[in-house]
C-alpha cells in the first residue's frame, strides 16, 4: 500500500462538476493499493497515518496528531502510485491492485481511519476526479507499507 499524505488547510474532490468530498484542516491522502495488499496492510497504514504527529504545537514543533487538532481526512484512490516507468515512455500499472479488491481495501482503509477521526471524506473509486488542496507547510510524506510495517 502506498500513500502520499499532505497536511492541508483544506481540500476537496470533484466528480462531474460536483464536489463529493471536502475537508478543512487535516490530511489529503492519495492512496494506492497493490496486488499484494491485505487488510493487515490497510490496518497498519491507517494506524500510522492517524497517529502521525505532524501538526505544530504551541511552540511551533510538529508534535500533535490529527486527533489532537480535530483534523479531518480526505482519501482519494490513486492507482497510478503503482506506475512502473522503467521501460519505455508509457507507464505500466501491472502492480496496481485489481479494481474489485483494491476498491474493497480502499473502503476498508477509510473505515479504519474513522476509528480515529470523526470526518473522513472520499473521492469516487475509479472515477476521473479533480482534486484541490491548500497544502499547509508544505508538508508532504510518502508512505509505503505492507502487513509487516510502514516506511
Features:
7-stranded mixed beta sheet, 2 helices, D-tyrosyl-trna(Tyr) Deacylase, Chain: A, 151 residues, alpha+beta, globular, 19% helix, two-stranded antiparallel sheet, 42% strand
Instruction: Provide the CATH superfamily.
Output: D-tyrosyl-tRNA(Tyr) deacylase
Report the CATH architecture: 3-Layer(bba) Sandwich
What's the structural domain tally?
Answer: 1
Shape: globular
CATH topology: D-tyrosyl-trna(Tyr) Deacylase, Chain: A
The CATH class: Alpha Beta
Rounded to an integer, what's the Rg over CA atoms?
15 Å
Query: Structural class, from helix and strand content?
Result: alpha+beta
Give your account of this protein's structure:
This protein is α+β, with helices and mostly antiparallel strands and 151 residues long. The chain has one domain: D-tyrosyl-tRNA(Tyr) deacylase (D-tyrosyl-trna(Tyr) Deacylase, Chain: A). It is built from two helices and nine strands. The chain has helices at 39-51, 99-113, and strands at 2-15, 18-23, 26-32, 53-56, 62-65, 72-77, 120-122, 130-146, 149-150. The strands form two sheets. Strands 1, 2, 3, 6, 7, 8 and 9 form a seven-stranded mixed sheet that branches. The chain has a two-stranded antiparallel ribbon with strand order 4-5. The chain starts with a strand and ends with a strand. The model has no long low-confidence stretch (mean pLDDT 96).
Amino acid at each position: 500500500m502506498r500513500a502520499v499524505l499532505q497536511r492541508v488547510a483544506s481540500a476537496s474532490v470533484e466528480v462531474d462538476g460536483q464536489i463529493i468530498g471536502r475537508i478543512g484542516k487535516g490530511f489529503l491522502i492519495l492512496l494506492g493499493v497493490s496486488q499484494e495488499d491485505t487488510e493487515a496492510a490497510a490496518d497498519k497504514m491507517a494506524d500510522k497515518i492517524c497517529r502521525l504527529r505532524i501538526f505544530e504545537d504551541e511552540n511551533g514543533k510538529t508534535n500533535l496528531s490529527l486527533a489532537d487538532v480535530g483534523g479531518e481526512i480526505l482519501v482519494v484512490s490513486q492507482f497510478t502510485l503503482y506506475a512502473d516507468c522503467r521501460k519505455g515512455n508509457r507507464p505500466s500499472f501491472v502492480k496496481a491492485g485489481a479494481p474489485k479488491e483494491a476498491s474493497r481495501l480502499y473502503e476498508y482503509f477509510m473505515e479504519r481511519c474513522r476509528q480515529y477521526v470523526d470526518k473522513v471524506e472520499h473521492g469516487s473509486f475509479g472515477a476521473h476526479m479533480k482534486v484541490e488542496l491548500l497544502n499547509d507547510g508544505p508538508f508532504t510524506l510518502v508512505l509505503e507499507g505492507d502487513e509487516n510495517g510502514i516506511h
